[in-house]
Specification:
This protein is mainly α. The chain has two domains: about 15-95; about 110-165, no CATH class. The protein is built from four helices and two strands, in the order ααβααβ. The chain has helices at about 15-80, 80-95, 130-140, 145-160; strands at about 110-115, 160-165.
Length: about 170
């Protein structure tokens, strides 16, 4: 695009300068419109590519789940569970984009649950005096109350004040 800088204002009339500037402006508008159209086409293409990528990812995820389900089902049907677990661990270790699902199985785990609970209960203890009743209860509380059941029942009703769960 040729600019007005090639015109010499000293030797060019005002009408010629205005005509040259108007032509240059019109050409700039046409160029801007063409660039705008290119940007709109590029944005449309980008949106289509994004949609296609989203659909492709969904399809791949579906296919991986289908493949995993089928492989797990076949390994369980044939009794090849241990071999399947080893192979899937090895295969998944080399994968870059997808991961085949491992078999789920039940595990027994040991946990320790520690809680603090306050339970108020009125008990009837047969004794000669109140102090004897307290002593009797202190010496053999299991004769009067199932502590485990009371703790569980109290925790169900009131919740533990503090609880910790440790895995062993």
């Amino acid at each position: 695009m040729e600019g007005i800088t090639t015109l010499d204002p000293a030797t060019t009339s005002a009408d010629a300068l205005i005509q040259a500037l108007t032509a240059e402006r019109d050409q700039a508008r046409e160029t801007a419109a063409a660039v705008q159209a290119m940007c709109e086409r590029a944005e449309s293409d980008l949106n289509q590519a994004r949609a296609a990528l989203t659909e492709l990812r969904s399809d791949i995820g579906h296919d991986v789940e289908h493949l995993s389900d089928r492989l797990i089902s076949e390994a369980e049907r044939r009794g090849w569970c241990e071999q399947y677990d080893e192979i899937i661990d090895d295969v998944n270790g080399g994968m870059r984009c997808i991961v085949l699902r491992s078999r789920e199985r039940e595990y027994e785990i040991d946990v320790t649950i520690t809680g603090v609970a306050t339970i108020h209960k009125t008990l009837t203890v047969r004794a000669a005096s109140r102090q004897d009743a307290l002593d009797e209860f202190q010496n053999d509380p299991h004769s009067y109350i199932d502590l485990d059941e009371e703790l569980l029942d109290g925790a169900r009703r009131n919740g533990f004040v503090d609880i910790e769960i440790d895995q062993e």
